[in-house]
Amino acid sequence: MCLLSVVIATHNRAGYAKKSIESILSIDVEEFQLIIHDTSDNNVLEEFCAEIQDARLKYIHCNELLSMTENFNRALEYVQGEYTIMIGDDDTILSTAIKYCRYAKEKKIDVISQKISAEYCWPDFRSKISGDFNASSLIVNKFTSNQVTYEGRKQYYEAVKNCFQGTASLPKLYHGIVKTSLLLKIKENTGTYFHGVSPDISIALSLAYNCERYIEVDYPITLPGSSGGSNAGRSAMRTHVGKLDDDPHMKRFKSYVWPNLLPRYFSVETVWAQAGLVTIQKIDNNKGFNFIKFYALCLIKHRPYKKFIIDEIKKYKKVKGGFNCIIYTKIIYHMSYFYINGISNLSKKIIKYVFKKLKSQEKQKNIKANDIFEARMIIEKELSKETFE
Q1: CA nearest to 59, candidates 7, 1, 3, 13
Q2: What average pLDDT does this structure show over 27-37?
Q3: Is the pLDDT of residue 287 over 80?
């Protein structure tokens, strides 16, 4: 058994995956394995990997068309490390991942998450706000080596309360370090590692429920990439909304459970909620999810899909009972909260940003890099220094 398994599940993205593989295997330690589980309908990546003479690389080409969740589940079956990290096919790990695995083993820590302080934007990355400004760029924010300890169950119930909107302070397998024995425990208890149509949300909830405590470090462990065809890239372009049957992400699911009362359209918010509801049904029978609060969020975020949301509100009334006036009063209350909270948070961010700029307390580096391999070499060089200035 090696110390760390780095797992990538990919599909028809050889251009990115090649550079990611090269980047990871250039790390000069023998304590990890790199697992590539590829469902591509071509042999481009398979032929590339066949040319690599490195015992750390394990490549699997699956000819079966799988959903993202199924691909992730299959990939984890090949893990041999004491600890596991999952990343995307346009991401890489840093040498610090090995160091933190050693630290986790020494201190008997089951999960180490990281505050994302560095990312790479590929040449084809575009944002609706800034266009191609960050394309071909390594972006690094100020970070420390501080760490925070969280209680798993507390964060789990907080996530349920917040309708599973983001992984925030939840423990993470995606760009986080997880003890493999904990993953096996989750599989034993729930039938598999990931559930629903958003695997990162699903596993984050399962980890929170099953680990007593975990830490989050303010230091780069991996280098996330954002490319044009990735989920991060789609989110940046605001193209993450549509009909369930039309979305390419959903078409790859042979079958999936869309929970009753959940608005039937594809978006970041509804996909996260779907994965959360399906996952917690395996854990504690869907206790605590606030549909009224979620409808309010959807009405704010996705007005063009108002009909889908109203349809589920009507069903909610039939299932749960109650008067229309009371239900809609609660929805309006939550909408007001989201509006006020959103404005408040935006104001705080602006004030904090301006204050830090004036005081020169925080610097962001934007360094040009042609690909993720080059970006990793740059940040590794900076991390080897005593300070990142």
Answers
A1: 7
A2: 98
A3: no
Q: Could you state, in order of their start, the residue ranges of all structural domains in the chain? A: 2-230+365-382
The CA–CA distances, whole Å, from 344 to 264, 337, 351, 352 equal 30, 10, 11, 12
* Token pair recorded at residue 243: 């009909």
Q: Which is nearest to 199 in space by CA: 20, 16, 70? A: 70
Superfamily of domain 2-230+365-382: Spore Coat Polysaccharide Biosynthesis Protein SpsA; Chain A (3.90.550.10)
Q: Are 164 and 201 in contact (CB under 8 A)?
A: yes
Neighbouring residues of 320: CB distance < 8 A, sequence distance ≥ 6: none
The tally of CA atoms less than 13 A away on the side-chain side of residue 151 is: 4
Which tokens hold the place of 36? 């590539």
The C-alpha atoms of residue 109 and residue 106 are separated, in whole angstroms, by 8
Q: Is the pLDDT of residue 280 over 50?
A: yes
pLDDT greater than 70 at residue 220: yes
The structure tokens 């996705």 sit at 302
pTM, 2 dp: 0.89
Both structure tokens of 48: 């590339």
Q: Is the pLDDT of residue 172 over 70?
A: yes
DSSP state of 91: -
